[in-house]
Amino acid sequence: MKYIVILCDGMADEPLESLSGKTPLEAAKTLNMDRLAKNAEIGMVQTVPKGMSPGSDTANLSVIGYDPKKYYSGRSPLEALSIGAQMGDLDVSFRCNLVTLTEDEDCYEERTILDHSSGEISTEDAAVLMEALSKGLAKDGYHFYVGTSYRHLLIQNNGHVTELTPPHDILTKKIGGYLPEDEVLREMMVKSYDILKDHPINIKRREEGKNPANSAWFWGAGTRPALTSFEEKNKVKGAMISAVDLLKGIAVGAEMDNITVEGANGGLHTNYGGKAEAAVKALTEDGYDFVYVHIEAPDEMGHQGSTDDKIKAIELIDDLVIGPVAEGLEQAGEDYRMLILPDHPTPVRVRTHTGDPVPYMLYDSTNAVKGQDEYSERTAQKTGIFREKGDRLIDHLLERE
Ligand SMILES: [Zn+2]
């Protein structure tokens, strides 16, 4: 038996007036999902435990089978794992954003934060600035790592996890009241401004009308998550297919292999077909029993508030991922169980995540059960099946219960 999760990030939504009361999933043309739905178990699952924040981190941990209440130790350590940063048990990782502050004030505390992403600075430019920070802020027991675009990392040996402010939560505010209480971190931030402000890259960015990356901002502190090995826990060999650092990090933590797909970028125009091909190859040729295919696009379209693009993303997943994976396994003569679900809703109306339960569909090629005409929020609610513990759904997929 082969096992597949197709994780459609943020796909669940609400009935929309503009779609005559349908949700984007209902409005999308999804021939493949509809075909599977007729013989699949469909129900609702609470992926994010009540009281926890509905992030892709907590929700995906849960779907992979790790109770976020027990295993979640912050977002930045998962990202640290994905970029190969070394983290000991006593180390603390911090997200280090490159941000844009106002420049007219006399002292650091008086500045206002304008942009948490420095105009989504390129990784190339950011790497040069991070190098400058790494040298200028060098201190025993502190290590900087370059990530992607404005997202980087600082790892402190033998540190403490403290409450820090996410920079995207205080845009246009004066920063004085939101700086770290930890003196080392605070001093590093003050000094980062002096190092970065007149760096040639920022002089050029100002000339080009772009936001200068003139300060580091530390937040999202956490320790290394102590995930048990996925293979040891479940007795199946698993692989992750995702473009997103966070998911790759969860895979590293769970000792699953990451399969890289060229052109997979987390956007609407990602390489859907390449992901499907990689999944089928992993299962039929490379000896994996389980693959987790994560597709970011519906979530991004939800954040953008674009109903049409969200529908488009769902149709592309149906046409280019779900169809080809099912066909590929059927042609190879493999029996399979396929679980399709979002991690959390990202309704286009609210443009952010919610913690509501999500619809799931579990199809077993060897066991045709009586299903529904289609897979949607509505049909999933109608069946009355509700799984309260999201981290146990994987046991159901893997026939462990
Ligand atoms: Zn999101």
Brief summary:
By secondary structure, the chain is of the alpha/beta class. The chain is built from 15 helices and 13 strands.
Features:
401 residues; transferase; binds zinc ion; alpha/beta; eight-stranded mixed sheet; 13 strands; 2 domains
Task: Characterise the protein shown here.
Belongs to the BPG-independent phosphoglycerate mutase family. A-PGAM subfamily. InterPro entries: Alkaline_phosphatase_core_sf, ApgAM_prokaryotes, Metalloenzyme, Pglycerate_mutase_ApgM. This is Putative homoserine kinase. The protein is α/β, with parallel strands linked by helices. Helix content is 35%, strand content 19%. The strands form 2 sheets. The protein has an 8-stranded mixed β-sheet, sandwiched between helices. Strands 3, 4, 5, 6 and 7 form a 5-stranded antiparallel β-sheet that branches. Helix 5 crosses helix 10 and helix 11 (272-284) packs parallel to helix 13 (307-331). It is globular, with a radius of gyration of 22 Å. Zinc ion is lined by residues 10, 56, 299, 303, 346, 353.
CATH architecture verdict of the largest domain: 3-Layer(aba) Sandwich
What is the H/E order?
A: EHHEHHHEEHEEHHEHEHEHEHHEEHEH
What is the share of helical residues? 25-40%
* Count of separate DSSP helical elements: 15
Structural class: alpha/beta
State the shape.
globular
> Mean pLDDT across all residues, rounded?
95
The total count of strands amounts to 13
Termini separation = 16 Å
> CATH superfamily membership of the largest domain, which one?
Alkaline Phosphatase, subunit A
What's the Cα radius of gyration?
A: 22 Å
CATH C-level of the largest domain = Alpha Beta
Provide the low-confidence segments as ranges. none
Task: Find the CATH topology of the largest domain.
Answer: Alkaline Phosphatase, subunit A
Query: What is the domain tally?
Result: 2
User: What amount of the residues lies in strands?
Assistant: 15-25%
Bound molecules: zinc ion
GO biological process, one term: glycolytic process
Family: Belongs to the BPG-independent phosphoglycerate mutase family. A-PGAM subfamily.
Pfam family, one: Metalloenzyme
GO molecular function, one term: phosphoglycerate mutase activity
